[in-house]
Amino acid sequence: MIHQLFLFSKNETFNILVGDLFISSEIFQLNIINKFSLKNKINFSGNDIPIFFCSEENSFEDFKIFLKNNSFKNTAIFFNVMKEDRGEDKNKALFFNLPFSLSDLLHGLQGIVTQNEDVEYHNIKFKKLSLDMAGRHIKDSLVSVKLTDKEAKILWHLVKEKGSTVSQNFLLKKVWGYKDNIETKTLTTHIYTIRKKVNKFSNIFSIENSDEGYCVRFK
User: Fold this and answer.
1) N or C: which end of the chain has fewer CB within 10 A?
2) pLDDT digits (tens, 9 = 90+) for 110-164
């Protein structure tokens, strides 16, 4: 499946750099839109990903209005937006500072593709934390912890159940698919790694295990 990227940018150097990245891509097709206004009309599909380069001519606030006017509800990518301007939008967007890493951009795009394909995995807020499924990290106002795709999905299921036990078989089937060759120790290893990563939030929650499976305990 081809995913359409819509790059809204007047920065020619940036456009060339990003354009070269996707010139031979079999997954993404890049569309560069040099002239942006609130009157632009685009019928975004569920697989489309807008990329916006913020400048004096193209403001972050205007582009958010544009996305809302065009009924876009998925994750968008933003470049060159000041941290103090991001606010709550950071839970529904990926932000990149300049200079940026091309590999980080590709990783972020793949995360959005995964989120769009697995519509079940939306972002979750709980207590003072947010679990960002597109960026694959859990964070509060000060700390952000990076997770792998499977770690994020495991934690998502545990948080979603709000303290109820989730069986090992359920997690293995949901996260790895219906594959008989996946062993329980694979899940155990991932749980161990997640626990180490989220230990910074131990005053908020912990992951407990029993004979039936795993659960999140809120404090």
Assistant:
1) N
2) 878 866 665 568 899 998 999 999 889 999 988 999 999 899 999 999 998 888 8
The angle formed by the CA atoms of residues 62, 69 and 3, to the nearest 5 degrees, is 95
With cut-offs at 50, 70 and 90, classify the pLDDT of residue 182.
low
The identity of residue 72, as a single letter, is: F
Total residue length of the chain? 219
pTM, rounded to two decimals: 0.55
Amino acid in the structure at residue 36? F
Nearest to 49 by CA among 19, 91, 11, 4: 4
Q: Using alpha carbons, list the distances in angstroms from residue 5 to 36, 70, 106, 122.
A: 15, 15, 12, 21
Catalogue all structural domains in the chain, each as residue range(s) with its CATH number: 3-117 (3.40.50.2300), 124-218 (1.10.10.10)
Alpha-carbon gap, residue 211 to 214, rounded angstroms: 8
The bridge status of strand 76-79 relative to strand 166-167 is: unpaired
